[in-house]
Amino acid sequence: MTEGNEGNLNNQGTGDQGANNQNASAVERPAWSAQLPDALKENQSLLQFKTIGELGNKFIETDGKLKNAIFMPGEKATPEERATFNKQLGVPESPDKYQFDKLEAPEWFDHDEEGTQNFRKWAFENGLPQKATATLYSQIMTARIAEEKELKGILVERQTRSENALKDLWKTDYAANKELAIRGLENGAKSILGAERGAKFAQFMKDSHLADDPLFLQFFHGIGKAMDSDKTAFGTGFTSQGGTGNQFTKTDKAGNPMLDFKNTPSMRGS
Q1: How far out from the chain centre does Cα 37 lie?
Q2: What is the per-residue DSSP string for 58-99?
Q3: Of residues 60, 32, 61, 66, the one with CA closest to residue 47
Q4: How far apart are CA 33 and CA 52, in angstroms?
C-alpha cells in the first residue's frame, strides 16, 4: 500500500467518525423535538427532556414555584406593586399593626411606650416583616430588662450599705437624722436654686440614688440641722415637717423665703 493510499484511508476514517458523531447526535435528539418550531429545535434546555411527559412535569413544577415567588419591585414600581411586595414579605399595613409579645418584667420597669412606637415606625419605614421585627424587639427588651435588673440590684445593695453605715454612726437617731438630711436637701436646694429648680434637683438626687450615699446624707443632715436652727427673715424656723411655723413675711422676687443664716454661710450669695 502506498503512502497516498494510506493517507486517503486515514482521511476517510476521520470523515466516517465525524459522520458517526453527527448520526449519534441526531439519534440522541428526542423524537418529540421534531414538533418544535425551527427556532426552538436546537434549544438545549428543551432537548434535555427525553419525553414530552418529562417536559410537562418540569413545567408544572416550575409554574408552582413561580406562583409562590416574591419578585422585588423595580425602581419604577407603583405604590400598589410595592404594597403587594411588602404584604408578601409580611410587612404590616401600618406601623401600629406590629404586634409584640409582652415580656415578664418587674413592676418598676418602664416599658417606654414612646420608644416602642418609634421602634414600630422605624421597622415599617425599613420594610421589616412582622416576625423579624417581633423577634428583634423581644431581644432588645430582654437585654434591657436584664441590664436594669442588674443596675437595680447594684443600687439596692449600695442603699443597704449606706443605711447600715449610717445606722452604725447615728444609732437610735438614724430615722430622725435621715429625715432631717432629706429636709436639708429639699430646703437647701430651693434656697439656692429657687423653688422650681430646687425641687427638680432634690428629686433628681433621690431618683438617681445619689442621696443615698452616706457622705451626701451627712452633708445634707448638716445643712438641715443648720437651717432648723436658723430663722427666716421676720419669721420662725423650719418645723420638723419641713415647713415653717408661721407664714413668711419676707420673700425674694421669685417668692422664695429669704433666709437669715446665722449658723451657716450665705447659701444664696449676693
Answers
A1: 60
A2: HHHHHHHHHHT--PPP-TT--HHHHHHHHHHHT--SSGGG--
A3: 32
A4: 9
Per DSSP, helices labelled H in the chain are: 3-28, 44-47, 52-67, 79-89, 113-125, 130-170, 174-193, 195-207, 214-229
CA 97, distance to chain mean position in Å, is: 18
Instruction: Dump pLDDT digits (tens) for 124-171.
Output: 999 899 999 999 999 999 999 999 999 889 888 888 998 899 999 999
216-243 per-position pLDDT tens digit: 888 998 888 888 765 444 344 444 344 4
Radius of gyration of the chain (CA): 44
Whether 177 contacts 170, CB under 8 Å: yes
Say which amino acid occupies 162: S
Contact 181, 214 (CB under 8 A): no
Report the distance separating Cα 212 and Cα 182, nearest Å: 10
Q: Residue 199: which residues within 8 A CB-CB, separation 6 or more?
A: 186, 189, 190
Q: List phi, psi (to 5°) of 251.
A: -130, 165
Cα separation of 183 and 205, whole Å?
Answer: 13
Question: First and final CA of the chain: distance in angstroms?
Answer: 133
Cross-strand pairs, 232: 259
Q: pTM to 2 decimals?
A: 0.50
Closest CA relative to residue 133, chosen from 100, 102, 111: 100
